[in-house]
Write a structure and sequence with these properties.
With about 300 residues, the protein is an alpha+beta fold. Helices cover about 35% and strands about 5% of the residues. It has 9 helices and 6 strands, in the order E-H-E-E-E-H-E-E-H-H-H-H-H-H-H. The chain has a 4-stranded mixed beta sheet, with helices on both faces. A hairpin with a 2-residue loop joins strand 3 and strand 4. Helix 1 packs parallel to helix 3 and helix 4 runs parallel beside helix 7. The longest helix is centred in the middle third of the chain and has 21 residues. The radius of gyration is 19 Å and the shape is globular.
Length: about 300
C-alpha cells in the first residue's frame, strides 16, 4: 500500500523523498565583488520559526549580532496550497519577482535584496555561511563559527549530518514505501548513535566551543522528540534517551539568546497541521514534556 506523497514532484518511483535543489544561490560578499556587498540595511531575511533550515539562519543572525543589520520577517506556520504567507502577501511573490518562470516549491529561508528587488539566496547553507563570514564588518566577528583550521573537518561532518539526520528525518517521514522509510530511519539512528559516542569525550562536536556544525545539528535535535519521533516515525529512540546528546541539546539551548529562537507552538502547528497526508486529522499532540532548562553538566568536558 502506498500513501499520497507530501511533495509529489520530489518523490521517486520507489517511494524515496528526494529534496529539490535550491534555486537562488547568489552570494553577498564583504568586498562586493559579487555585485551584492555586505552592507547594513540592504537585505531582508524571510523565515519560518517552524522550519529547521530557516532556524539555522536565525541562530547565526543572532550569534553574529546581525539583527539590526538584516531585518527579519516571520511567515505564518500554517502553509496551505498557496505556500508560505506573511501578512497579506505570499513568499511566492518574491520568487516570481525574481524568476517569473519559477515552478518549483517555495521554501524558506529567503534572503531578499531590497535594492535590486530579487531573491539573493534561498539556500540555508549559503545564507548561514554568508552571515558567518561576509558580514563581520557590520556585525560581530565573534563567535567564529567556521574557523579556518577546522573547515575541512566541518564540511565533512556537515555532509554526514545533513544526509543522514537533518534530511534523514524527512526521508523517513515523507517516504511512501516501507523500504524507503526503514532505510532512512535506520540511518538516522546510526548517525545519532555515533554522535552520542563522540560527545562523550568533548563538550561540542569540535571541542570546547560550538561551531556551525553544532547549530546545524541543534535545529534537528530540538524538533526530534516533539515532532520527528511520532510524526515522522523516527521512534527507535528519543533524544531524551541518549545520555550525551540530551545534555548537549540542553547545553546549546541554554546559550544566551538561543531559547528565544525556538518556538514550539510554531513548530508543532506547522508539522501536524500542514502535513495532512501524514496527519489528516490535523490534531496537534499535547506532549512531550521537555526539560531543556535542567542542568546539562557538560562543563566538565571543557579543557582546563
Amino acid at each position: 500500500m502506498r500513501s499520497t506523497a507530501q511533495f509529489p514532484d520530489e518523490q521517486s518511483d520507489d517511494g524515496r523523498f528526494v529534496r529539490q535543489e535550491d534555486r537562488f544561490r547568489t552570494w553577498v560578499t564583504a568586498d562586493g565583488r559579487s555585485g551584492f556587498p555586505a552592507v547594513a540595511g540592504r537585505y531582508h531575511l524571510y523565515v519560518s520559526l517552524a522550519c529547521p533550515w530557516a532556524h539555522r539562519t536565525i541562530i547565526v543572525r543572532k550569534l553574529k549580532r546581525l539583527e539590526e543589520t538584516i531585518p527579519m520577517t516571520v511567515v505564518d506556520p500554517i502553509r496551505d496550497e498557496r505556500g508560505w504567507r506573511y501578512g497579506s502577501h505570499f513568499l511566492s511573490e518574491l520568487y516570481l519577482a525574481s524568476d517569473p518562470r519559477y515552478r518549483g516549491r517555495v521554501t524558506v529561508p529567503v534572503l531578499w535584496d531590497r535594492e535590486t528587488k530579487r531573491v539573493v539566496s534561498n539556500s540555508d547553507d549559503d545564507i548561514m555561511r554568508m552571515f558567518e563570514t561576509e558580514f563581520n564588518a557590520v556585525g560581530d566577528p565573534l563567535p567564529d563559527l567556521y574557523p579556518y583550521d577546522l573547515r575541512t573537518e566541518i564540511d565533512a561532518l556537515n555532509a554526514v549530518i545533513y544526509e543522514t539526520v537533518n534530511d534523514g528525518v524527512y526521508r523517513a517521514g515523507f517516504a511512501t514505501s516501507q523500504a524507503a522509510y526503514e532505510e532512512a530511519a535506520y540511518r538516522v539512528f546510526a548517525t545519532l548513535d555515533e554522535l552520542d559516542s563522540r560527545l562523550a569525550t568533548r563538550r561540542y562536536l569540535f571541542g570546547d566551543v560550538p561551531v556551525e556544525t553544532d547549530w546545524r545539528l541543534f535545529v534537528t535535535l530540538i524538533r526530534f522528540d516533539p515532532v520527528y519521533v511520532g510524526h515522522f516515525k523516527c521512534n527507535l529512540r528519543r533524544i531524551a534517551d541518549y545520555p550525551n546528546l540530551y545534555g548537549y541539546l540542553r547545553d546549546l539551548y541554554q546559550i544566551p539568546g538561543i531559547a528565544q529562537t525556538v518556538d514550539f507552538d510554531h513548530i508543532k502547528r506547522h508539522y501536524y497541521m500542514t502535513h495532512d497526508d501524514i496527519n489528516p486529522t490535523g490534531i496537534v499532540p499535547i506532549g512531550p514534556l521537555q526539560y531543556l532548562e535542567l542542568p546539562h553538566q557538560r562543563e566538565r568536558l571543557s579543557a582546563h
